[in-house]
Protein backbone atom coordinates (compact mmCIF):
# COMPACT_ATOMS: atom_id res chain seq x y z
CA UNK A 1 0.00 0.00 0.00
CA UNK A 2 1.28 3.43 -0.92
CA UNK A 3 1.21 6.25 1.60
CA UNK A 4 0.33 9.69 0.29
CA UNK A 5 1.09 12.92 2.10
CA UNK A 6 0.13 16.35 0.79
CA UNK A 7 1.66 19.54 2.11
CA UNK A 8 -0.94 22.18 1.39
CA UNK A 9 -2.64 25.42 2.34
CA UNK A 10 -6.40 25.92 2.59
CA UNK A 11 -6.53 28.68 -0.03
CA UNK A 12 -4.31 27.35 -2.83
CA UNK A 13 -6.49 26.11 -5.68
CA UNK A 14 -4.10 23.35 -6.79
CA UNK A 15 -4.08 21.97 -3.25
CA UNK A 16 -7.86 21.70 -3.36
CA UNK A 17 -7.76 20.15 -6.85
CA UNK A 18 -5.21 17.59 -5.64
CA UNK A 19 -7.32 16.60 -2.63
CA UNK A 20 -10.44 16.32 -4.79
CA UNK A 21 -8.48 14.09 -7.20
CA UNK A 22 -7.47 11.81 -4.31
CA UNK A 23 -11.05 11.61 -3.03
CA UNK A 24 -12.45 10.87 -6.51
CA UNK A 25 -9.98 8.02 -6.88
CA UNK A 26 -10.41 6.66 -3.32
CA UNK A 27 -6.82 7.46 -2.39
CA UNK A 28 -6.26 7.85 1.34
CA UNK A 29 -3.91 10.70 2.16
CA UNK A 30 -2.47 12.61 5.06
CA UNK A 31 -2.81 16.38 4.81
CA UNK A 32 -0.28 18.72 6.39
CA UNK A 33 -1.31 22.39 6.50
CA UNK A 34 1.86 24.44 6.11
CA UNK A 35 -0.05 27.71 6.58
CA UNK A 36 -0.66 26.95 10.24
CA UNK A 37 2.78 25.58 11.18
CA UNK A 38 6.09 27.08 10.05
CA UNK A 39 8.05 24.05 11.22
CA UNK A 40 6.22 21.71 8.84
CA UNK A 41 6.68 24.29 6.10
CA UNK A 42 10.43 24.09 6.68
CA UNK A 43 10.19 20.29 6.67
CA UNK A 44 8.44 20.46 3.27
CA UNK A 45 11.17 22.73 1.85
CA UNK A 46 13.89 20.44 3.19
CA UNK A 47 12.28 17.40 1.52
CA UNK A 48 11.34 19.00 -1.80
CA UNK A 49 13.54 22.05 -2.24
CA UNK A 50 10.34 23.95 -3.06
CA UNK A 51 8.39 26.62 -1.23
CA UNK A 52 5.23 26.32 -3.34
CA UNK A 53 2.34 24.01 -2.57
CA UNK A 54 1.09 21.44 -3.05
CA UNK A 55 3.99 19.12 -2.44
CA UNK A 56 2.83 15.53 -2.63
CA UNK A 57 4.89 12.64 -1.33
CA UNK A 58 4.09 9.10 -2.45
CA UNK A 59 5.81 6.46 -0.36
CA UNK A 60 6.00 2.83 -1.41
CA UNK A 61 8.03 0.91 1.13
CA UNK A 62 11.38 2.62 1.34
CA UNK A 63 10.95 4.41 -1.99
CA UNK A 64 9.70 8.00 -1.86
CA UNK A 65 8.58 10.09 -4.84
CA UNK A 66 8.04 13.83 -4.53
CA UNK A 67 5.55 15.58 -6.80
CA UNK A 68 5.54 19.37 -6.80
CA UNK A 69 2.24 20.89 -7.89
CA UNK A 70 -0.72 18.97 -9.27
CA UNK A 71 0.92 16.75 -11.87
CA UNK A 72 -2.05 14.52 -12.67
CA UNK A 73 -0.33 12.23 -15.22
CA UNK A 74 2.53 11.55 -12.82
CA UNK A 75 0.14 10.92 -9.92
CA UNK A 76 -1.91 8.51 -12.05
CA UNK A 77 1.29 6.63 -12.85
CA UNK A 78 2.66 6.62 -9.29
CA UNK A 79 -0.65 5.56 -7.76
CA UNK A 80 -1.52 3.01 -10.48
CA UNK A 81 -4.88 4.64 -11.17
CA UNK A 82 -6.82 3.11 -14.03
CA UNK A 83 -8.82 5.56 -16.17
Textual characterization of the structure:
- It is a single chain.
- The protein is 36% helix and 27% strand.
- The chain is an alpha+beta fold and 83 residues long.
- Strands 2-1-3-4 form a 4-stranded mixed β-sheet, sandwiched between helices.
- The longest helix has 12 residues, at 13-24.
- The two termini are 19 Å apart.
- The model has no long low-confidence stretch (mean pLDDT 94).
Fraction in beta strands? 25-35%
Spatial order of the strands forming the largest sheet = 2-1-3-4
> What is the CATH-assigned architecture?
3-Layer(aba) Sandwich
Please outline the major beta sheet. 4 strands, mixed
Summary of the model, kept short:
By secondary structure, the protein is of the alpha+beta class. It has three helices and four strands; from the N terminus they run βαβαββα.
